[in-house]
Amino acid sequence: MISVNNISFSYDTVGDTIKNISFTLNKGELIALLGPNGSGKSTILKCLNGILKPKTGEIYIENYNIKDLSYKEIAKFISIVPQEHSAVFSYLVIDIVAMGITPYLSFGRMPTTKDYKEAYTKLEFFNIQHLAEKNYNQLSGGEKQLVLIARALMQNTDYLIMDEPTSHLDFKNQHLLMEELKKLSENGKGVITALHDPNLALRFCDRIIMVKNGEIICSGDKTEVMNSQNLQILYDVPVSMNKVEDVSIIYIN
Ligand SMILES: Nc1ncnc2c1ncn2[C@@H]1O[C@H](COP(=O)(O)OP(=O)(O)OP(=O)(O)O)[C@@H](O)[C@H]1O
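That is the input. Now the predicted structure with adenosine-5'-triphosphate docked in place:
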């Protein structure tokens, strides 16, 4: 379990960017983090994988305080798909994906031929194997996103953190990715993902955390918290929820 206990963080001295954030992420569940632009979702996720250090509060991964773990140790528990990423050097796509196993390699060791085969199957899953030998920095936004997701799957950790992984993906790939995240959670992984589309959260996720102005305004099972009233408060717009052929659809009035 990852346990977030009352954390606050600030980028500067003027007020807290996130305040009193508490929740748990269990293996076997898929959580959606919903909230308006700038509400603090990425900041929460960056605290969760050790990139940012909370000003107050504690984060435990299993029974380890995150403060006591190195980046390499954290990477054995958690893989992350960031919102944006540019490789500083020009790596091939297949190398970027194979690098997913780096936390398991001893110093100076490189991924093996078997690892590269595995990396290739990850590309095949998203039907982007034709990109294997391309320079990562020359890919489209959506292609880059798929490559980073493939790398995270290659890392094969118990927990996955995704920051708006669907933002650059086409209609089909958004669905494919959400189905894969659901499958991963059903197979025992703990997944938390920031999302901008409440419909994807409603359809695929188990639990929802709503964040506004750096605070959790409500969280719980999707059947309890995904309603037009909460979404209206979250996004400051009139929201309706209706069933179309047995599927609930959320839309702005
Ligand atoms: N490196 C930084 N330095 C200073 N302020 C920052 C930094 N990164 C983010 N912020 C500010 O912190 C607040 C929360 O940003 P964050 O990226 O966590 O929001 P978000 O909910 O992920 O937004 P979005 O949905 O637009 O990606 C915003 O007001 C943002 O301007």
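The chain has a mean pLDDT of 91.
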